[in-house]
Every structure is written in structure tokens, then in C-alpha cells.
Amino acid sequence: MPEPRFLQIHFLAPYTAALLNRDDSGLAKRLPYGGSLRTRVSSQCLKRHWRLADDPHNLHRIDGADAAYRSRETIDRKVFGDWSAGVDEGVLKAIREVLLKAVYGDKGVDKKSRQTLLLGQAEVDFLTDTAKRLVAEAAGDAKTAKAVAESWAKAGKANLKAMGEGAKLPGGLTGALFGRMVTSDPKANIDAPVHVAHAFTVHAEEAESDYFIAADDLAREEDTGADTIQETELTSGLFYGYVVVDLPGLLKNLGGDTALAGEVLHNLLYLIAEVSPGAKLGSTAPYSRASLLLVEAGDRQPRSLAEAFRTACAANTSVAIGKLAEHLAALDAAYATGETRRVMSLANAEIPGAERGTLAELAGFAQVLPEQLAGPAA
After folding, report:
1. 253 and 309 fall within a common domain
2. Domain co-membership, 55 together with 76
């Protein structure tokens, strides 16, 4: 097996009469591809559901997986918590404004001007400790609070890079996996080792406009018609999705912790296979599981298998897996990149060079890759 520099994850997942991901007009997101319009689920939508899944394989149930908060209000909601009750408002205001500028930039005092920023627990703890110390130094005087806060800001610690210094996961596990961009402090950016493509249907879109009503249970006999009349869009489809994990990048972001990296990969495979992206839960129950999960470990540049579906195929798992296998065989013949493969499939179609297994076996295969990459010294 070549050194496992990359882990590639391909999946096929079916959904019926759902609205998984909406655009700004409330319709299903779409993608023109190969002359056909496809239904699409954005990478942002997929990642959010994997991050926040209330699931036995939730990433934040892993030991050592620090929390993170993506918000414009982390200072108010997390840094100034219950401990600040009873502190002079003028003191809090002076210190809060300095912290907001340190985190969100010069315009950070105005909520509308702030970036929706990801902060890790280590950074939140640093800011909380700083706020408490500055409040103590202010001794109840607002002018003193402003002076000590501005003095702290000029001392070189008023940036996210410094706030997370020495922390294993400065941006939390979320930042370590999916990255972070800080427009006001580029040195605090975190490169994402987990790369997620937009999922799309392997066939032309299948959509309808759903006309529905809401009836008034207390309507009188003389009342006729519906109380509310609305329309929504419903779609059905078999989606192809693709995820790449840069294993050295993942290890770097996790401080070289191979055990943590293995647990992350193990749980991530379960989440990709079992967690559904979905809105309108009460009216569509958009729950499904992957019909195919193919994982590949290798040392060559990753490549999507989306080309297998450039020409729209039937919305049938066996047909789609056949198209994917055919395209993969052509790539193998041309490039011979030698990836090691494992596949879980609900169909009998074979995948070139892939050993079949259960989801648990695929997750176990992924879990040991960081140790293999780190070598005997790990």
C-alpha cells in the first residue's frame, strides 16, 4: 500500500420527495452538468449537518475534541457569561469594545460589520480570562477599564494568532477539520484538510411543485375552503458526493495526535454514510443512508469520479454504481495510481480493486491510516 497521504470518500445516497438544500428563493439548489440540470446539495450544507449531528458518532464526543463557536456574538454570549452579572456597565462596555475590535477588527463594535467568525474553546477561554483580569484591574472605574484594556490591546496579544498560541486546537476541532478564514487577522487562518464537494444527482433533476393547505380545526360549518394555501418544491434523487481528507494536513492541525486523527476519520465515515442533510423534517422525513460508500487511500493527487455521471444515467443505484465502476476502471488503466480501496454497497456490482466490507470495517480501515502515515516512530 502506498503511503496514505490522501483519503478519498465517494458516496451515493438516495432521497425521495425532499427539499434538502434551498436557494435564496426557497427552491432546491441546482447545478447544470453535462447538458442536464441536476439537483444539488452544497458542501456548506453537508459539512454543517456532519458537524452538528446529534449522533453517537458526533465528532465532539471524541476525547480531546475541543468545541468551537461560529458566530458574531461569541464575545457577548460566551466570553461575558454569568460571571459578569453585577459588574459596572461602564467597565464592561469599555472592555467589551476592545475585545470586539481584537477579534472582529476595527469595526467589530458594530454587529452588522462583524464577520461570522469561528472561535475555538481555547480562544474563548483566553478571552474570558483576559476580560476577568481587566475587570479586576479596573476596580469598578470605567475610565480605568478603558485604559487597561487599551494597554492590553497594544501589548501584542490582541489578535487571534496570539490568543491561540500554544493551544493544540486553537480553532477547535471544527477549525482543524474544515478550516477558518479570518479577514481581519489572516495569520489566524487555518487551512482545511477536509475538502467537500457539492453533491449532485447522477440523473436529470426530478422535481415537482407541491400545493398544500392548512385547515382550521375550529372552522365553522359555514366557513369553506382552506385557511392557508401554499406551495413548495419537492425533489427526488440519487446523489453522488465526494470528500477528500489531506492526512498530513489533518495531523498537523491536530498537533500530530494520530489517535485523535483516527477517531475523527472513523466517525466522519459514519456521519457521511448515515447523516442526512435536510430541511422540512416534519413534512418530508428526509432520512436516508448511503447506498454506496467507497474509500480510497493513496499518495497521488485525488480525483473526483463525478465524470462518471456527466451523461445523466438512470436514477438507479445499480446503474449508477456500474457507471462509477466503468469510469474508475478507465482511470486505473490510464493512470495506475494504485490506491487501496474498500467499498460498502447495497448492490451486487463490483468496484475495481475494492475489497467489500461493512460500514464498521470501512471506518476501521480509515481509523488506522494516520498511524501508518506517522510511521513506526509514532
Report:
1. yes
2. no
- Give Cα separations from 175 to 100, 160, 178, 307, 366 (angstroms): 20, 13, 5, 30, 21
Please give the model's pTM, rounded to 2 decimal places.
Answer: 0.92
- Let me know: does 235 contact 28? Beta carbons within 8 Å: yes
Residue labelled with grid coordinates 476519520: 265
Which H or E element spans position 27? Answer: none
Separation between Cα atoms, residue 316 and residue 289, nearest integer Å: 15
Q: Are 75 and 69 in contact (CB under 8 A)?
A: no
SS (H, E, C) 107-173: CCCCHHHCCCEEEEHHHHHHHHHHHHHHHHHHCCCHHHHHHHHHHHHHCCCCCHHHHCCCCCCCCHH
Answer yes or no: is 182 within a domain: no
Residue with cell 432521497: 15
Element spanning 236, H or E? strand 228-246
Kindly report, residue by residue over 75-92, the tens digit of the pLDDT: 999 999 899 999 999 999
Instruction: Decide the pairing of beta strands 228-246 and 292-298.
Output: unpaired
| C-beta atoms surrounding 108 within 10 Å | 21
Three-class secondary structure of residue 318 per DSSP: helix
Q: How many CA atoms lie within 13 A of 253 on its CB side?
A: 28
Q: For residues 236 and 358, state if they share a domain.
A: yes
Nearest to 15, CA basis, from 49, 47, 48, 40: 40
Q: What is the pLDDT of residue 2?
A: 65
* Residue numbers of the domain that contains 334: 6-65+191-216+229-374
- Which grid cell sits at 138? 479596573
pLDDT more than 90, % of the chain: 83
Buried-exposed string 124-151: b where 16+ CB fall within 10 A, e elsewhere: bebbbebbbebbebbeeebeebbebbbe
Q: What is the pLDDT of residue 224?
A: 65
Q: Report if residue 284 sits inside a domain.
A: yes
Which three cell numbers mark 89?
A: 456597565
Q: Are residues 259 and 349 in the same domain?
A: yes
Calpha distance 46→41 (Å, rounded) = 7
